[in-house]
Design goal:
Oligomer: single chain
Strand content: 5-15%
Number of strands: 5
Helix content: 40-55%
Number of helices: 10
Distance between the termini: 30 Å
Radius of gyration: 17 Å
Shape: globular
Order of helices and strands: EHEHEEHHHHHHHHE
Length: about 210
């Protein structure tokens, strides 16, 4: 067992993305293993038969299988920006439930047998609510980024990327600024490091914490 926690991750997965963001900001170092989803490593499946990322394996044998639980675990060990003050469970559930439902059916209509225009419109209604919320304070739970922002942001990023020109034309000025701010932040750049898929026997790759002068 590694002396550091082991994070099984996939760079483009929004669930894994938000786990990596929280681990970085918390200052919690881990060993990261990039997963090829079509060839999931046996070690990951042995730890977590559900077969989805992220998965965090702690040195004591504890396995944390859900991205929000990984975020809360990391922030419980170090929360220099006060992200846990914005742990708005209802808001995040709206993202992980209705918004993710419409996102998937907008991005993958053939897979779901869906009308993408209908689901894009439904997702836009949710974004309009968040735009009004952002108008008041700049972030979803106050004047600074918190867990809610970083749990939701990867999914909004994915939705915006389905049709960037269409998204840019929508009357969501506060969402646009909020999204651009996160995309330009060095924290996001560090979370999106490119790695080759991990294989048994590879040297460990440390991930985090953020240097003091970053």
């Amino acid at each position: 067992m590694s002396p550091l926690p082991i994070l099984y991750s996939f760079r483009r997965c929004p669930y894994a993305m938000r786990a990596r963001l929280a681990l970085l900001v918390s200052g919690q170092a881990v060993v990261i293993r990039e997963v090829k989803l079509r060839a999931k490593p046996a070690a990951m499946l042995a730890a977590s038969p559900k077969g989805t990322v992220p998965v965090l394996c702690l040195p004591d044998g504890t396995v944390i299988e859900q991205s929000l639980d990984i975020m809360r675990w990391a922030l419980g060990r170090g929360d220099p920006e006060g992200w846990l003050a914005g742990d708005d469970a209802a808001l995040v559930a709206r993202n992980d439930g209705p918004f993710k439902h419409h996102l998937d059916r907008t991005k993958y209509p053939d897979r779901h047998g869906s009308d993408p225009a209908v689901h894009r419109g439904a997702a836009l209604e949710l974004l309009a609510d968040w735009d009004a919320r952002l108008a008041a304070t700049g972030y979803l739970c106050g004047p600074a980024r918190t867990l809610a922002d970083m749990a939701v942001f990867p999914f909004v990023r994915q939705f915006a990327a389905v049709d960037p020109d269409w998204f840019a034309a929508q009357p969501l000025p506060h969402v646009h600024r909020w999204l651009a701010r996160h995309l330009a932040d060095p924290l996001f750049g560090r979370a999106m490091i490119r790695l080759s898929p991990w294989a048994e026997g590879d040297d460990p790759i440390p991930f985090g914490p953020i240097p003091p002068d970053a």
